[in-house]
User: Fold Glycosidase from Thermus aquaticus.
Amino acid sequence: MTIAELEETLKEEARRFLARAQGLRSPHTEDLFRRRLYISPEEVRVENYPRQRPLAAFNPGAVLKDGVVHLFPRLIFDYYSYASAIGHTAVPVEDLLRGRIPRPLPVRIVLYPTELYEAVRGCEDARAHAAGAGFLLFYTAVGKLGDARNTDHKDVFTAALALAELGEDLSVRRKGLLRVGQEGEGLYLPTKNATLLDGGNLLLRPSFSGVPDLCWRGRLDLDTLRVTDLRPVLPPEPFEYKVGWSTNALRLEDGTYLVAFHGIFRGDLSYRHGFARLKGDGEMVGLSHYLLAPQGLVESYGDRPLTLYGNGLFLHGEELVFVGGVGDYALGVFTAPLEEVLARIVPV
Assistant:
């Protein structure tokens, strides 16, 4: 199958899914989450780069490991080109939830553009996973790829899904782009929002021309970075422009996974978040309505207004912790009782 044929096959599958799968959710919003902490870029100090104060620090991947939260924020120093790098900082979980962080917060850049496929706008929006003593980061690489290679204009670029493996010392052991298809050149998809599940299963949100963004599942070979067996899972509703996965997936005691999703609400263009419960292969078990939405000045006004963008999800005791970007300029930490969130997930 050629790349064009593969893309058309997936687009047709998306169209059929949209025709039959909408109508499971309402636009009802019930914000359950307590605001624990905001971290503005003025409170960040970058330790391994000459410019220590980013203009924006937001959309952080998050991993809880041995009582410490590892944060991987997206950093931007120039609005002219909007080029991004990904940093790292670590804070004891109790201190993070109580707002007792160092000020300024020390951050080191761990992932930055080095390849052609990152060379225009860099490395964006990490979704972090523990991997032995180190980490796996899904991220969006924005550079020259496919047709974008045919021009030297920096205004022409492609966003594609990439994966970086970091060692215990946070050095990059390897990184590369994910391709769809088992053989040949493979299809690079403009995509974000990827997270791992059981046994090579993953969630992702590819974009296709002529089809609204929706949530998919598939399988990933970590050795070859090939994605196969793509299937749509969650469609946007008529009150949304699109949907995407918001966070990494959290494994629950019964073996199912909890993951946040976002919809861009047509009423005000806000990013609002609900929660899905999935089997280990990504099959949908249940869905909630919106349980988190922008509130007040801090969350409503930013480089992108009315935007909460989720990246990290973990459990601390019986408290669900959602870590994300605020207005495309700052970091936010939000919590809700796990029991309350699960009670609002309706079987599908």
